[in-house]
Target: FAS1 domain-containing protein
Amino acid sequence: MKKVLVKFSALVLFAGTVLVSCSDDDNNNNTQQQQTIAQIASGNPNFSTLVAALNRTGLTNTLNGSGQFTVFAPTNDAFQTFFNSLGQNQNVNTVDINVLRNTLLNHVIATEIPSSAIPASTYVNTLSPISTANNAPTISMFVQKSGSTVTLNGGVDSKGAVVTTADLDASNGVIHVVNRVIQIPTIVDHVIDNPSFDTLQAVVTSTSGAFGDQSAVLTALNGITAAAPATLFAPNNQAFTDATTGTGFAVGATAAQVTKVLQYHVTTAGNVRSNQLQNNQSIPTITSPVQNLTAILGGGNVDIRDSANNLARVFQADIQASNGVIHGVNRVLRPQL
Model:
């Protein structure tokens, strides 16, 4: 009987040990938490410069907290290339802190976007504000996807980047590793980066041929500053085809007339976003003498009426740049030539 009791006690002890061990394993599994974006970056030596930049600018807590973010994370080599472009002796500790902070925010989207959800092309809003004003608009990013390749703001041939490793999942979003620091785009940069505006780019950069020398217009666009921003109504490629072929109004236009057409798409009335436009609002352009456009609102659409009473539909509103905003339109606006 004593032997039976001893064996029974040993069996109970063994069973209890197993149950406790299993319970501990379950507790460990339940309490193990997924890392945040900031924690993943801190644990990867390829992101040491990114971590230092986040710490210096006070953004670590943002990417370590609640919410859902998409972070396009430059590697150390990408940051070094960026610092080299700024001049000698520039590094994460010496670059202007405001430039560094706004540049970092230009890599962050306030929602989680896995690579599988990225369409062929789209614009997204970053967290980088155009000014220090409350509720200031934020910089737009142009995202393209071809196969599994994701390109941002035109890629390395422009001022953008390419995703090299996608979908590092975090508890508060996702990280996509990129091979360059994504610089904050100007109006001209956004035109260059979007293939839908290739013809506009070709016309503005023309120095001879069918469109003549338009270098003065390009100089004017490049001279637009954040302190005195402008708004560009940008015709897409099909709009230029319609205007310059067949019975299009710009067929046979002289260089001077092309200049006036281009100027008629720019207003220095400020950074005029679509929600600031009012129905029948007059919009002065930079033609000389000044010619006006008219905003026509209705049915949830924004149209721009030109001097010939033609309406151009805004198909892509509020492409935000550092020095102004672009609204894509489906017709070349016709001034009085």
